[in-house]
Amino acid sequence: MRQIPVDTSAASIMAAQPPQPKVANRQTGEIALDRETGAKLMTVDVMFVLDGNAEIMTVVIPESGVPADLAMGTPVALTGLVARPWENEFNGQKRHGISFRAVAVTSLADAGAKAA
């Protein structure tokens, strides 16, 4: 699968929603697992601000890379962020988009408090 590294160095990023388990099957409630490691996957909605434009994007992160106390509005850094184009067909309708995946999300709130 193609992966495109995302440079976040010029952007401001903050948690828009608390982390949630990524659901693999909405009917059964089955939680998604990483295909390679078997790790439970989480989704984190973040606000990505660059050049005065803000976008909300959902990032999939292994549970081990998500701090338990990550709160809405917390400034964060995304480690190893990549974009993955996807396409599928469901009920005869073609759909496509871009999904985002990261190795970890780290709160920058603690770093700012320590620097002050």
From TrEMBL:
Residues 1-26 are annotated as: Disordered. This is Regulatory protein. It comes from Streptomyces daqingensis.
